[in-house]
Amino acid sequence: MQQIPARSTESPFRVYDFLIVFATMLGASFFGVIVAFIMAPPESLDVVGILSDPTFLGISLASQWIGSIAGLFVLKAIRRASLEDFGLPITGADARGIFWGLGAVGGLIVFGLIVEATGVDAPSQDLVTSFENIQGPLWTAAAVLGVGVVGPLTEELLYRGVLQGSLSRRFAPMPTIVITSLIFAAVHFQGGNLATVLFVLLGPIFLLSLVLGWLVEADNGRIGRAFFMHATYNSVQVILLFSGVAGT
């Protein structure tokens, strides 16, 4: 990778600003879980049953994304931040990130084949369990839009725009990217055999975050290319799941 240039302007955010948005997201997600239990109670109250219910998980995820957006707006008001401070705007030229996303999917497929060849029982994210039960074009479109567009946008604004921006005030670019990626991967931890989860599930997520962080730093703090890469990476996986090409 080429040498990363310094950001043109200093981020107004602090590390605890990330915690403000993250706490807002968790609060909204918890509220969404309560609403989901009332509106669409899962058939089974065990963890597997809950996570395999697409309506329940859909409401929970939607509330999580709404909480993230609300938290970002609160942070914008507190810090009097501009859109540029979050890494915006996203322009058409940033669509080059699509090719990065396709490359990441290709790398993930190769990695999956290698893992399968070793005989390791690869864990999957909870979303995969729920997607297997999604039926109908409306739910399918909602899943692709949510996981493929809304999710990546809120995550890039939060992790690359706020967290990585705040860390860049204290650390050089590479340590900043590594720390951000460690946190990004840790948030996606969902339990299971620790060694297997770290290597098979969180390893690719950590590597993906490293590239996303590098793109943001290379673009002087703008998240455009990283968003398109992230959105492509998620969208292709969702489409492959629905098409039956990929599975658990």
Query: How many β strands by DSSP?
Result: 0
For the largest beta-sheet, the strand count, sense and barrel status come to:
none
Shape: globular
Distance between the termini: 33 Å
Count of helical regions: 9
Radius of gyration: 18 Å
Report a brief summary of the structure:
This protein is mainly α.
Structure description:
- α6 runs antiparallel to α7 and α6 (137-167) packs antiparallel against α9 (224-243).
- The protein is globular, with a radius of gyration of 18 Å.
- The protein has one domain (15-243).
- The longest helix is centred in the middle third of the chain and has 31 residues, at 137-167.
- Helices cover 71% and strands 0% of the residues.
- The chain has nine helices and no strands.
- It has 248 residues and is mainly α.
Give the SSE layout.
Layout: H1 15-39, H2 47-51, H3 54-79, H4 97-118, H5 126-131, H6 137-167, H7 173-187, H8 194-218, H9 224-243
Helix pairs in contact: 1-3, 1-6, 3-6, 4-9, 6-7, 6-9, 7-8, 8-9
Name the features.
248 residues; mainly alpha; single chain; 9 helices
